[in-house]
């Protein structure tokens, strides 16, 4: 239970460090953020086997669905993330799902150099639907 609370707080903190980033697709909303893994606490990194490093970037994707209830509901999805830097080098990003009580996170990890800008192309396919949401975002990372 304790690691779950820490993960949620870490991910919320990381989203708040940068302005909230989200895209709306009908009654679905995709929240996303990218931040260096050294922002995680040691406990969270250990619990989820993430290497804390200023040169490792975590990409966090969550899918929420509006259901008519006061709060949106986390929705499972198939998430793919492709990355490339400004000189066109592709970055391989595998995505894993983290389930936490009423939350579902999709986390990708990628190595970056200092002052590297990476464009992330994201595809989110909500489970049990034929829907597919595509969007891109760019971040510049400083790791020294």
Mean pLDDT across every amino acid position: 88
Uncertain runs: 12-18
CATH architecture type: Sandwich
Q: Helix count?
A: 2
- H/E series, N to C? HEEHEEEEEEEE
Number of domains: 1
The dominant shape is globular
Main sheet record:
6 strands, antiparallel
What is CATH's topology name? Immunoglobulin-like
Structural class: alpha+beta
Give the end-to-end Cα distance, rounded to a whole number of Å: 34 Å
The named CATH superfamily: Domain of unknown function DUF4426
CATH class: Mainly Beta
* Total beta-strand segments: 10
Helical fraction equals 10-25%
Query: What portion of residues belong to β-strands?
Result: over 45%
Radius of gyration: 15 Å
Report on the structure:
The structure is a single chain. It is globular, with a radius of gyration of 15 Å. It has two helices and ten strands, in the order αββαββββββββ. It has one domain: Immunoglobulin-like, CATH 2.60.40. Strands 1, 2, 3, 4, 7 and 8 form a six-stranded antiparallel sheet that branches. With 144 residues, it is of the alpha+beta class. It is 15% helix and 49% strand.
């Amino acid at each position: 239970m304790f690691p779950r609370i820490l993960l949620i707080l870490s991910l919320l903190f990381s989203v708040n460090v940068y302005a909230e980033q989200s895209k709306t697709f009908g009654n679905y909303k995709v929240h996303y953020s990218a931040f260096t893994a050294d922002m995680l606490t040691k406990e969270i990194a250990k619990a989820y086997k993430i290497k804390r490093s200023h040169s490792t970037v975590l990409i966090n994707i969550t899918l929420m669905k509006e259901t008519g209830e006061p709060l949106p509901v986390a929705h499972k999805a198939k998430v793919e993330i492709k990355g490339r830097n400004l000189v066109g080098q592709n970055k391989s990003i595998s995505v894993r799902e983290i389930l936490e009580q009423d939350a579902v996170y999709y986390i990708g990890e990628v190595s970056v150099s200092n002052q590297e800008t990476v464009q992330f192309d994201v595809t989110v396919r909500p489970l049990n639907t034929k829907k597919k949401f595509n969007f891109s975002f760019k971040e510049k990372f400083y790791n020294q």
